[in-house]
Write a structure and sequence with these properties.
This protein is an alpha/beta fold. It has 21 helices and 22 strands. The strands form 5 sheets. Strands 12-11-17-10-18-19-9-20-21-22 form a 10-stranded mixed sheet. A 6-stranded antiparallel barrel has the order 1-2-5-4-3-6. The structure holds adenosine-5'-triphosphate (ATP) and magnesium ion. Adenosine-5'-triphosphate (ATP) binds next to helix 6.
Length: 658
């Protein structure tokens, strides 16, 4: 992977140490000619002048460093001498018969010393520009690039003075178990955060070491069409292709991508920008019922609600009520499957309590106020996230247990209400965790990419369930193979422990105000300036093996950009109910004849149609139309329940407003 230096090129500089600016084990200074190819971020090597000595005497030391600052000087002691010399006229200063001596002095931070022990100040040696092999040594990449089981994941090209060297991350430190997670920050539009993660995912898929097993990614699309076209090829220029080649990554779109999007509130049109007829096939509806919501009901309670009583009541509902026969204590028996059934139970409870002359305000040890609160929260989610939370049929979810190797699962929540987003996020990540713990997800590791992570784990604000969950992944995910790739504009506004646990930290172009915050004190002023003016496509990377941050360049992702995607594949307009139903049935079975469907559903209740459609989708029958027709059944649909009913009807489909 690494090209070796055949013959040593001439040195470009020499280490200097003075009493004021001595060389230390961690920093040194060197001078170069005025014209030099190096600059801030360049990697250099220092070779000690051995004078014929040998290694045993501590001679022959090689030091690798990265340039962190630069100075230019002349022999003038004070600016006054120059002013006087030119008689106060700047135009005449250039005419002076003798050009002043000018030097370039650089400061470099030590990346590595060979031998590592004893650790000594940097010797006064010759300075060379690093080669590929030197870069590998300097960044300690030799430890994971060679051997029987190499673990390098290309992240970009280190570029300086005409030299380009691939930089690799260690899979054990990017994807666990030694360390894990990646966080990228930088200003909007210029930092290329989303693009960098797209490229890195492609690189991870191609270079994930085979001994580590299978890997998949779950990406949350939180902004417009950003991640909606990961399976479509984008345009790359010559430079990009060359970089792909140099990094050993194939410039191609992701081959296996599944999209999941909830419905809009009509329950039949998908709530995503990927609805172009040519692409919509890869989009599965994301629909959850009462059971799925109740399992993560804590998400719906905000901090003010942190209330053991509400928690206890929710547990009671999910353990004792949902999905089983339940006696309400007022003479009614319920079988709660949907939100509507639950609402009926709530009504029965309130009526029962009021009917008792208002003497009691508790039911089964739960206070009426707690019951009301939980009811409000649950009805709130079913209204606010209507297309996600359904009352009309079975849920449709990610393929838990059947995740495929090198597949990307995009969950599109860009147009979902924030409360719904939290719910999706909490449930998907908790499920991933649960399956990975049991080792039956279908893959051994999952990268979860959360763009705009600051929305979910801000530094301040309440300790929400989602925030706690993110903390949990960042602290424990690496043992499970659950890896978080997060992106946000301002790292300083993020929860400290969430970003602090990221083993690999990447910066794109940064805002200068952000750089002035305390988190960046370790960077030299010159490095900060470089970060504030970083060109598009360049990143600064911190990784556990690199003692100093390193600048790299990465190629454009090989996938279609979101906004180009919506130009090339304009989203289909929302269809009227009947047409949307037809479209979904045709998606299941191309032989379905639209007119027959329309005739069949002409005067049916929408809930019944949605339910039959959802069940057909779930069954994936050979003949979708016949199945759908059978499910829709007679005009008045009634699923008989073998239960004594006190509050009719106990049919999962309700007439009553919720
Ligand atoms: N390696 C690259 N080289 C050159 N241009 C690039 C590269 N990667 C991305 N770009 C371009 O930079 C622009 C911004 O990229 P991107 O959308 O990834 O930024 P972002 O940091 O995620 O922005 P936002 O904060 O708005 O989400 C895109 O138009 C993209 O085409
Ligand atoms: Mg982005």
């Amino acid at each position: 992977m690494i090209e070796r230096r055949d013959s040593a090129p001439p040195p470009i500089g020499r280490v200097v140490a003075t009493e004021q600016k001595p060389a230390t084990p961690h920093q040194f200074h060197f001078w170069t000619a005025k014209e030099t190819s190096i600059g801030i971020g360049a990697i250099v090597t220092v070779e000690e002048d051995t004078g014929g000595g040998s290694d045993e005497q501590g001679l022959g030391r090689v030091v690798y460093g990265v340039v962190t600052d630069g100075f230019a000087y002349s022999d003038l002691v004070t600016p006054l001498h120059d002013v006087v010399g030119a008689e106060g006229d700047p135009a005449r200063a250039a005419e002076s018969p003798t050009a002043r001596q000018e030097i370039r002095l650089w400061t470099a931070a030590v990346l590595r010393q060979r031998p590592e022990e004893p650790l000594q100040p940097v010797p006064l040696g010759r300075v060379h520009v690093a080669t590929d092999a030197d870069v590998a040594q300097a960044l300690r990449m030799d430890a994971y690039l060679g051997g029987a089981e190499p673990r390098g994941i290309p992240v970009g090209l280190y570029t300086s003075g005409g030299l380009e060297a691939p930089v690799y991350l260690d899979a054990d430190f990017l994807l666990g178990p030694e360390a894990a997670h990646l966080n990228i920050s930088g200003v909007s539009g210029l930092a290329t955060k989303t693009s960098a993660v797209e490229f890195l995912l492609a690189s991870v898929f191609e270079h994930f070491p085979s001994h580590k097993g299978r890997i998949a990614a779950v990406c949350f699309n939180v902004k417009g069409p950003d991640l909606c076209f990961l399976d479509q090829a984008g345009t790359l220029d010559e430079q990009d292709l060359r970089r792909y080649d140099r990094l050993g990554v194939e410039p191609k779109a992701f081959e296996r991508v599944r999209y999941y999007a909830p419905f809009k509130s009509d329950g039949v049109n998908l709530n995503t920008l990927r609805t172009h007829p040519d692409l919509v096939r890869a989009v599965e509806p994301l629909v959850w019922g009462l059971r799925e919501v109740l399992d993560y009901a804590e998400v719906l309670l905000n901090r003010d609600d942190i209330d053991a009583k509400a928690d206890a009541f929710i547990d009671f509902l999910s353990d004792r009520v949902v999905g089983r026969e339940f006696d309400d204590g007022f003479g009614g028996t319920h079988r709660v499957v949907t939100f509507a059934d639950l609402e009926r139970l709530f009504r029965a409870i309130f009526d029962g309590l009021e009917g008792g002359g208002g003497r009691s305000d508790t039911w089964r040890t739960h206070h009426i106020a707690t019951i009301r609160k939980v009811r409000n929260r649950l009805s709130n989610i079913s209204t606010r996230a209507k297309g996600l939370v359904t009352d009309d049929g079975p849920s449709s979810d990610l393929p838990w247990g059947g995740f495929e190797d090198r597949a990307v699962y995009v969950v599109d929540v860009a147009n979902v209400d924030p409360l719904g987003q939290d719910l999706v996020f909490a449930r998907v990540v908790s499920k991933l965790r649960e399956y990975l713990e049991r080792r039956d997800l279908g893959v051994d590791a999952v990268v979860v990419f959360v763009d705009e992570l600051n929305k979910y784990a801000p530094a301040d604000g309440p300790d929400t369930y989602v925030k706690k969950m993110l903390l949990d992944i960042s602290e424990r995910g690496r043992y499970l193979g659950l890896v978080l790739f997060g992106a946000e504009q301002f790292r300083s506004q993020m929860h400290r422990r969430v970003v602090g646990n990221a083993g690999t930290i990447v910066f794109g172009r940064m805002d200068s105000d952000e750089l002035a915050t305390p988190g960046y004190q370790v960077l030299s002023p010159a490095t900060k300036i470089k970060l504030a003016t970083l060109p598009i496509g360049e990143l600064m990377v911190r990784h556990p093996h690199f003692t100093q941050p390193i600048f790299v360049r990465f190629p454009r992702p090989a996938v279609l950009r979101g906004r180009d995607g919506v130009d090339r594949f304009p989203p289909a307009a929302d269809l009227p109910f009947e047409d949307a139903v037809v479209r979904q049935l045709v998606k299941l079975d191309v032989r379905v004849r639209p007119n027959l469907v329309k005739d069949l559903i002409a005067d049916r209740r929408e809930e019944d149609v949605r339910r039959a459609l959802a069940l057909t989708r779930q069954a994936r029958p050979h003949d979708a139309f016949a199945h759908f027709k059978k499910l829709l059944g007679a005009r008045v649909s009634a699923a008989p329940m073998p239960v004594r009913e006190s509050v009719p009807p106990l049919n999962p489909i309700s007439d009553e407003p919720y």
